What we know:
The complex is a heterodimer.
Chain A: H1 8-16, H2 18-51, H3 53-57, H4 69-106
Chain B: H1 5-12, H2 14-17, H3 33-56, H4 60-65, H5 72-83, H6 86-99, H7 101-111, H8 113-120, H9 122-128, H10 133-137, H11 143-177, H12 181-228, H13 234-244, H14 261-275, H15 279-282, H16 291-322, H17 346-395, H18 402-426, H19 433-456, H20 462-482, H21 484-488, H22 504-521, H23 525-532, H24 534-543
Transmembrane segments (chain B): 36-54, 75-98, 104-122, 149-169, 181-202, 209-227, 264-286, 298-323, 358-387, 408-427, 433-457, 464-490, 502-521
Keywords (chain B): Cell membrane, Ion transport, Membrane, Signal, Sodium, Sodium transport, Symport, Transmembrane, Transmembrane helix, Transport
Membrane topology (chain B): Multi-pass membrane protein
Amino acid sequence: MDRPVSHAQSYDQIRNNPKFRQLVQSRSRLAWTLSALVFGVYSLFMLIVAFAPQWLHRPFGEASLLTTGIPVGAALIVFSWLLTGWYVRSANTRFDSLSAQIIEESQP
Amino acid sequence: MRPLRALGLAGLCLPACALAAPVIVAEKQPLNLHAIGMFFVFVLGTLAITWWAARQTRSTADFYTAGGGISGFQNGLAIAGDYMSAATLLGLSSLVFAKGYDGFIYTVAFFVGWPLITFLMAERLRNLGRFTFADIVSYRLDQSRIRTFAAFGSLTVVCCYLVVQMVGAGQLIKLLFGLDYPVAVVVVGVLMLVYVIFGGMIATTWVQIIKAVLLLAGGTALALMAMSRFGFSYETLAAHAIDSHAIGKAIMGPGSMLADPLNAASMSLGLAFGIAGLPHILMRFFTVPNAKEARKSVFYATGFIGFFFLVVVTLGYSAIVIVGTDPQYFVGGDLKGALIGGGNMVAMHLAKAVGGNLFLGFLSATAFATILAVVAGLALAGASAISHDLYATVLKKGRVSEREEMRVTRIATIGLGLVAIGLGILFEKQNVAFLVGLTFGVAASTNFPVLIMAMYWRDLTTRGALWGGCAGLVSALLLVILSPAVWVTVLGNAKAIFPYDHPALFSMPLAFLVIVVVSKLDRSARAERERAAFDDQFVRAQTGLGAAAASAH
């Protein structure tokens, strides 16, 4: 039901289009880099929590009662959200226009 | 000084209350007329929307996915609504109230799965799927067997989660509204049936959007009122919180709760990847017109969820000062004793303290609305697995009219509603914490591995997916039975054989391992065809060419 026979020829053409390879490469490079970044920063955070918690207990600024941990936690949430924004922006502009070109070129 | 006994309570039910409804056997409270009145207004509004949606719902596509006509922003709110359950507000704020920074760490853990879904899943889900996630998994694999399996995985998750929500709803409503437990369960069940049967995905999405707005507005207003007591300064708040809390300065950094890193790792793994295997969340990606809107919707959803979580952490810290030092919120006025209504009521007490009874009523009504919206989404996901996957595709091989399929969907919804009400009443006195472990365990170790491999791995075969999925399902089930929540709490043994609450750390890698090994060993002709079909699937996943289009309204 979901196998669109009518698209089979277009699919072959698209696969052979060098722009398609370019699209796949640049998109997966960005997606995996950002994933690794989020996952890496999060893992680092959890490692600090597990093995160097005193680092997060340090006061944030002179004579402050707020600890470093509070802004770090908040920054983690905001930072990974901003990366989401970066990806969505690239995908919705750069990748989508490339993809539209590729589809256009594949139509008979 | 702050009570330590209440802390135990919040900590104990953490895996349950953090994402699902709180597991508490609540005492019935006097009738809360403000809350009931405001809830009544919400119900009237949503019924009007259901009436409108019923007139828009003409095809199966309208019913399952709102015809793909939901915008990215609307869908972002709806996804955020699905994820921000009543208990995110109640559970996480209570956790910060009890444990301080440790609650914050958990909050971050609940959040971090969302960016990963954006980068790796959102657009492929939209480009490959139509009504259910089984569409994607069975794209190039054996339609009958894989669909049956995926539908079974969906239904397991949906049923467990429905029971959790129903029991939570009953307890919460008994507490907040002063209604009897069975009455509460039946009200939730019946309203859910009305939304889904008549309004389908259009009504379900709008109920979710309204509720998300109410929850965001209510939470933000509460945080602003609470922070006004501290001159909107986190520095002042920190100073007062440290003075008010029993463990003092320790609330500002990592504490004792993560003493067992493996337990924490298993839980955060289960939660982060479980989201990507929850059928009612996955279904949301099919309600937008194209991959562009799908991406936008996760961007908005992630923003709303992140913002809401930061608000909730603020609420927790403010409550340490405002609720924690006020004897009227403690049983017998004893600050060292338990909180009235149980350890999960922190946000509600805070609402009363800073906003009075009217605001408490508003927040209670919002909590009720939240549960309602989540169960409606679950019922719809379950019904589409039964009617679209099992009935229309597997049983009738796609030879079925839309009319007939819609009829089956509605019957399936009624069936699920009755099961939910029945089990909800049956489980009243049970501790359902284990069902949360099971829901997320099965989602992360059965649905998620099969789905992500189907999207990304060329060599996946039907045999590999079935064996791997079953390995994940069985191991998750077994580990939950051997975990403290079932082995000790339900079965009454002295010591759990499996020491962690969440099985994902073990069952998820096992599922992946079996998928890879069995697929690699599969030398059948069918396996060859399935691998070859990946190329076309890959082009469609990347470009969206051939993806299901939005229906014209």
